[in-house]
Amino acid sequence: MTQEHVVVIYPHPDDESFGAAGTIASYREKGVPVTYLCGTLGEMGRNMGNPVFANRETLSSYRKQELMKACKALDVDVRLLGYRDKTLEFEQVDHVAAHLQSILEEIQPTLVITHYPGYAVHPDHNALGTAAIKAVGNIEAVRRPELWAQAIATNYEKELGEPDIRHDVKPYWDKKMAAIETHLSQASGMMSLIKEKPDFNENEELEHLRYERFYRWNYNN
Amino acid sequence: MEAIIKEKVQQAIDQFADKDVYVHLETTNGAYASHFDENAYNVGAFIRNAKVKYEHGKIVGSGNAYRVGLKLDLGWVYAEGVTDYELDHQNRLLMAGHDREGRLMVALEISETPFSHESVEQS
Ligand SMILES: [Zn+2]
Fold first, then answer.
1. Host domain of residue A171
2. Dihedrals φ, ψ of B21, to 5°?
3. A1, part of any domain
4. Mean pLDDT, residues B34-44
5. Residues of A with CB under 8 A from a CB of B
6. Most CB within 10 Å of its CB: which of A52, A131, A151, A205?
7. The CATH number fitting domain B24-80+96-108, selected from 2.60.40.3080, 3.30.930.10, 2.70.180.10, 1.20.1600.10
């Protein structure tokens, strides 16, 4: 029986915390190792902290530190893929896919989590999701991990149907909030939104954060 | 960064004149503009490490937003909406404009050495 191992592939420090912290925490609770392959350092981010403490040249260093803290809070391994924020869609897809595949062949995960191409809003999300799906598809079928794709776009459910996986991460809420809070340069807006309206029923943003939803990728057709 | 002191920024601009310098120029309203508001447009542009030489440059404006123009042999470098500046420890002139929530809207940076793509540990 293969050892369970989860690999999360997103492009930005904080995607893991906003998008999958509860899911990650549930695997860590079961003792399943989780590795985060983080595509960029988010060095072109618009948020500089509020009040501002970073600038365009120092932002990557802050975000790298924040990422390390988040991964510590979530108790996951992290690997930096070294691409540059906003430019992933201009890289050669095959090149990025081969890069990812080489890491996946080494880790041999049982589950890969990434963004759903075309439904993930940020061009980096769409591009890295495309490459990740390709990378997993290039692994021979007997060793191929399961792949879950996360959509973010408004109304994605209308076009894709109901997600196959819908995790209510309320049991891991404190962990998820702790992970989000480590992203100090990015998360202040979201944190004040949460503090203003801490009630799940009244706050749409909280609902998004509470249910982590994924589509199971079908490689057979 | 701190709020622009026009004279200091002008001094820094003068100091880079007639030298080969690297420029980072950027404007953005974020990758999520049309996600949060379907009537909004995503607009942005950046150029990193453009190598230029300007004969002179000026910072113009007053109060809380400034314009910066650098006159090149064959053209111009221009940024509007600059609010803050910093001369960092590598003697690079970093200028940026931020909105009320502290989000970057425009940046213009000038350096005698190329801008790196690496992060450095913060002390
Ligand atoms: Zn992201």
1. 6-216
2. -130, 160
3. no
4. 83
5. 41, 43-44, 46-52, 55-58, 60-65, 84, 86, 121-124, 152-154, 189
6. A131
7. 2.70.180.10
The CATH number for A167's domain is 3.40.50.10320
Q: What is the pLDDT of residues A5-18, one digit of tens each?
A: 999 999 999 999 99
Q: Is B121 on the interface with A (CB under 8 A)?
A: yes
**Mean of pLDDT values over A61-80:** 98
Q: What is the pLDDT of residues A183-216, one digit of tens each?
A: 999 988 788 878 787 777 777 788 889 999 999 9
Q: Which of B94, B101, B118 sits opposite A56 (nearest CB)?
A: B94
- Within 8 A by CB and 6+ apart from B102, the residues are A47, A48, A49, A50, A51, A52
Closest CA to A112 of A124, A123, A104, A120: A104
**Beta pairing partners, B86:** B94
The CA A70 to ligand 1 mean position distance, Å, reads: 15
- Domain count of the fold of chain A: 1
- Could you tell me which residue, B32 or A175, shows the higher pLDDT? A175
Find all residues with CB under 8 Å of A216, minimum gap 6, and list them: A146, A147, A148, A164, A165
Neighbours of ion ligand 1 (CB under 5 A): A 12, 15
How far apart CA A95 and CA B20 sit, in angstroms, is 34
